[in-house]
Design a protein that fits this description.
about 625 residues; alpha/beta; Rossmann fold; 6 domains; five-stranded parallel β-sheet; five-stranded mixed β-sheet; 17 helices
């Protein structure tokens, strides 16, 4: 180096240093300069990282689209840098014949020339092949992650120091063995696969791999069929066949099938279960089994990318090929195809179990059950109350019967004279007849015919006396309330017979008016109803005082109005004080010095127990009138 040169170079260095210092000062003044290590880190961490994501068949092309989504989600969640993810699709992978890649290469080069991405990530085999092939011309220095790619599709020889591989391992034999395990009767496996270059490659690989299984099961390959033809065949498969959903990206007719519509269509027509090792198809159409795990691949790929973006050398980021995850099965498909859970491999997970009606509508059912219980409680409460009321009713009737009985004994005093009189008659004539017969027998030639007639009279009088006793006993009998079909005229007539003498002794005419030919059928207890009539007649007789002048009569008149039978008991007594008309049926109401005030209360209770009514009024010409109405029996 010459002296002049060295002076010149020294001047230039001073100028450079000065410029640098000035630059640094301005940089630091603007607050963005690398003043210290921490500040520098902060600035760099804010700079966005440009990620180039290259898809094989399309952004929404299953199964890769699901992996790509998981990778992006992982990156976005975990990246310390803002990310600018730019996505491109290698459409040529869809072609059944090798397509021209030139224009796409040109497009990428013009996009990224001079501004290379911070990382290139290829999704799927075709994209991996593409970036490996064109790395030198497109991204000579950018780090690359080849992900979501089967091991066999990596060109290991062309890998550079700047490449990382996140691969998966397709184990066809394991997948098929799984189908054979869950459906042990399987005789045929039909492989649904498309006709793109990638799919053709895989078909050949599968054929090679499954050789060890060929003595156990036969294989049918649908690789060279248009999808419509595959559907037709799948709908008429012989028994013991299972379908295996390989790839169906482009069929033999060149039709592209992205998404899972093709699989839905197959599932809709197929008469055999469908297996597949891609988790992205799991959850609707396939039975399940060991599958590649989307979250695992997303996580591991993001790990690799973030390490590389953080400065690690790609060749040092080594990720083991990812095998199938623990098997998972769709419960609904197991049900549909009659697959027993006992056939599933150990450690399997069964998803999408349909909850039983109890699980699904637990709250609604609990609510209904609660409502039913409450209703049942209410009903049984009501029944209980009803029963209680019935019992109380029965009990009150029993009490009533007892009370009426006591009341009858009270009336017996009044009746004794009448009964004695009634008994006297037959007994007297029995005595007379017996004496006559004795006299005749003492004679020399007794008239046996006449004696026979006398004896017949004795027998008739005896029966009459027996009848009086029977009637008395029946009135005094302590009988429970008993409802029968009765003819009311008859029942009342019999009761009147008991008090005829009482009336006669008091010099009161007892009249009974029953329209001829009119029968009054009611349902009731005859003894109780007689008790009603007796009470009313005895009250009426009592109402007519001994000193009362004028007409002395008690009348019992039978009649009918609408649906009721009527018993009217009227008298020619003084009648009832208007103020008392409302209260005479109350218990213990009496105007008599020795009265109990129970007669009319009992009468009303008996009448109401027969669903009837009783009323009291004063007659226009004087005297009280009691009217009992009882429903006519239908
Ligand atoms: P008691 O005869 O023991 O008084 P009742 O219940 O049979 O009890 O009668 C209640 C009251 O009704 C009687 O005290 C009397 O005042 C009145 N009563 C009942 N029947 C007649 C009637 N035929 N005429 C006038 N008053 C009557």
């Amino acid at each position: 180096m010459t002296g002049r040169n060295s002076v010149a170079s020294a001047k230039r260095r001073v100028a450079e240093v000065a410029l640098l210092c000035l630059g640094l000062a301005v940089w630091s003044y603007l607050g963005v300069g690398p003043v210290n290590a921490a500040g520098q880190g902060e600035v760099n961490s804010r700079a966005p990282k440009r990620v180039l994501l290259l898809h094989s068949f399309g952004r929404d092309f299953l199964p890769w689209s699901e992996y790509a989504r998981s990778i992006k989600t992982n990156l976005e969640q975990r990246s310390p840098w803002p990310l600018d993810i730019q996505e491109h699709t290698l459409l040529t992978a869809r072609f059944t014949e090798p397509g021209a890649e030139g224009p796409f290469v040109e497009y990428l080069r013009s996009m990224y020339q001079g501004r290379p991405p911070d990382i290139v990530m290829s999704i799927g085999g075709p994209a991996a092949g593409f970036v490996q092939k064109h790395r030198a011309e497109l991204f000579p220095n950018a780090p690359m992650v080849l992900t979501t790619v089967e091991e066999r599709l990596i060109d290991r020889a062309s890998l550079t120091e700047r490449d990382t591989v996140v691969s998966v391992r397709n184990d066809f034999v394991a997948a098929f063995r799984n189908a054979l395990q869950v459906l042990p009767d399987t005789r045929t496996i039909a492989l649904v696969i498309g006709a793109s270059a990638l799919e053709k490659f895989w078909l050949e690989e599968v054929k090679k791999d499954v050789e060890p299984l060929e003595d156990r099961v036969s294989f049918v390959w649908y690789g060279d069929l248009p999808f419509d033809e595959i559907l037709k065949r799948a709908s008429a498969l012989p028994p013991h066949t299972v379908l295996f959903w390989g790839l169906m990206s482009v069929d033999a007719a060149g039709v592209v099938h992205d998404g899972d519509r093709a699989l839905h269509r197959l599932r809709a027509v197929a008469n055999a279960p469908i297996f597949c090792f891609e988790e992205s198809f799991f959850g609707r159409d396939i039975v399940g089994g060991p599958m590649h795990s989307i979250p695992e691949l997303g996580e591991k790929t993001a790990d690799a990318a973030l390490r590389i973006l953080g400065g690690e050398k790609p060749a040092d980021v080594k990720i083991e090929p990812i095998a199938y995850a623990a098997p998972k099965y769709d419960w609904r498909e197991l049900q549909r195809w009659g697959i027993s859970e006992s056939n599933l491999p150990k450690g399997s997970e069964v998803l999408f179990r349909e909850p039983g009606i109890w699980k699904e509508h637990r709250w609604q059912l609990a609510l209904i059950a609660a409502v039913i219980l409450i209703q049942a409680g209410l009903i049984s409460g009501l029944l209980h109350e009803r029963r209680g009321r019935r019992l109380a009713e029965v009990e009150s009737r029993e009490r009533l019967a007892e009370l009426a009985h006591v009341n009858r004994y009270a009336a017996v005093g009044e009746l004794t004279a009448s009964i004695a009189h009634e008994l006297n008659q037959p007994l007297g004539s029995i005595l007379t007849n017996a004496e006559t017969a004795e006299l005749m027998l003492r004679g020399t030639a007794p008239d046996l015919v006449e004696i026979g007639e006398i004896l017949a009279d004795i027998r008739r009088d005896d029966q009459r006396a027996g009848e009086v006793i029977r009637r008395l006993r029946s009135v005094l009998k302590k009988a429970p309330f008993e409802i029968k079909d009765i003819e009311l005229n008859e029942t009342v007539r019999e009761a009147i017979g008991l008090v005829g003498d009482v009336a006669a002794r008091r010099n009161i005419a007892l009249a009974f008016y029953a329209p001829p030919e009119m029968e009054l059928h009611v349902k009731g207890d005859p003894v109780q109803l007689q008790q009603v009539v007796l009470n009313l007649i005895l009250n009426a007789l009592e109402a007519i005082s001994e000193s009362q002048a004028g007409k002395r009569e008690v009348s019992v008149t039978m009649g009918r109005s609408a649906d009721s039978a009527e018993i009217r008991v009227g008298d020619t007594g003084p009648g009832i004080a208007v103020a008392d008309l409302k209260t005479i049926f109350e218990p213990f109401f009496t105007t008599k010095p020795e009265g109990m005030g129970m007669g009319l209360a009992i009468v009303r209770t008996i009448v109401e127990a027969h669903h009837g009514t009783i009323s009291a009024e004063n007659q226009p010409f004087g005297g009280a009138l009691f009217t009992v109405r009882l429903p006519i029996a239908s």
